[in-house]
Design goal:
Blueprint: E1 4-12, H1 18-28, E2 33-41, E3 52-54, H2 57-69, E4 76-81, H3 87-103, E5 108-111, E6 116-117, E7 121-122, H4 128-135, E8 142-143, H5 147-154, H6 165-171, E9 178-184, E10 193-200, E11 203-210, H7 219-232, H8 237-257, H9 265-276
Parallel strand pairs: 1-2, 1-4, 4-5, 5-8, 8-9
Antiparallel strand pairs: 2-3, 6-7, 9-10, 10-11
């Protein structure tokens, strides 16, 4: 029996961001996903209009309690956390992760600390980044912040990952926590490339990819989805990051050629085909 992934993330009626993307990629590849929404929106927040709202804290807590009562945690390998709709949601989610790991110590927490991005600013309420940093980051076995989000967690604008190792060591437990920092463009980065850094077992490595002049909403979600998929398939972290980077870059390049700026179903399917051919 293949292991299941619990996804606590945003859900939209239209489009491919949040759990719409993550759950689809995993399920299409044959891996089951259990999705719990933190917000219910008509579409992502980059559109001019949006309907919906965060789900109530009581409802989120009730859903998570219901998951615990199903007694299925022995089937779960990973809990992914993403977009949070309130400070309280980060606390409720943290308590769920702790309880789940008490029942099954083998469960890993993949924290995608959705906060914003360099070119778009914050995606969430200004109180959320600190709450994620306080409540969810310390519980993570694997973190996937982009450069903007890592700066918010560290409360400092990093100009070089290697030179910032002392600061990273004071914030994270790098002997136990693994970090993949995406979307880095430092002075050392080639102008037509973008760097992803892997911090694992106190070592730091980088994987460069082609920079595509296109940044649709949901790029981080597609990257994290393929990262988790590759990990479920048994790949090590550098291999998983390489696969996720290839899937995302190829999909963006294909979208750019077709002059499209929003992820569509065809892009998710295309990304799966890219990995299949690797």
């Amino acid at each position: 029996m293949k292991e299941k992934t619990i996804i606590i993330h945003s859900q939209v009626s239209y489009g491919y961001v949040g759990s719409n993307t993550t759950s689809f990629i995993l399920k299409a590849a044959g891996y089951d996903a259990i999705t719990i929404p933190t917000v219910l929106y008509s579409n992502h927040l980059g559109h001019r209009t949006v309907g919906g709202q965060p789900i109530s804290d009581n409802l989120l807590e009730n859903i998570l309690e219901g998951i615990l009562k199903l007694n299925i945690l022995h089937e779960v390998s990973t809990i992914i956390t993403g977009f949070m709709g309130s400070v309280k949601q980060t606390e409720i989610t943290a308590n769920f992760i702790k309880t789940a790991q008490q029942k099954n110590p083998n469960i890993k927490h993949l924290c995608d600390p959705v906060m914003g991005d360099t070119d778009k600013g914050l995606y969430v309420h200004q109180s959320i980044p600190e709450a994620i940093t306080k409540n969810l980051v310390p519980l993570a076995n694997l973190l996937t912040p982009n450069k903007f989000e890592l700066d918010l967690i560290l409360k400092q604008n990093l100009t070089n990952i290697e030179e910032s190792r002392p600061l990273l060591n004071t914030t994270f437990n790098l002997s136990k926590q693994k970090i993949v920092v995406t979307g880095c463009m430092f002075a050392s980065t080639a102008t037509d490339e973008i760097d992803n850094y892997i911090l694992e077992n106190n070592n730091c490595t980088s994987i460069s990819g082609k920079k595509i002049a296109l940044h649709p909403a949901g790029t981080g979600d597609l990257f994290t989805a393929h990262l988790q998929l590759s990990i479920l398939k048994g790949l090590n972290l550098p291999q998983a990051v390489s696969n996720a980077s290839k899937a995302l870059t190829a999909s963006l390049k294909n979208m750019d050629l077709q002059k499209r700026t929003e992820f569509d179903l065809q892009d998710l399917l295309f990304s799966l085909q890219v990995i299949k051919n690797c």
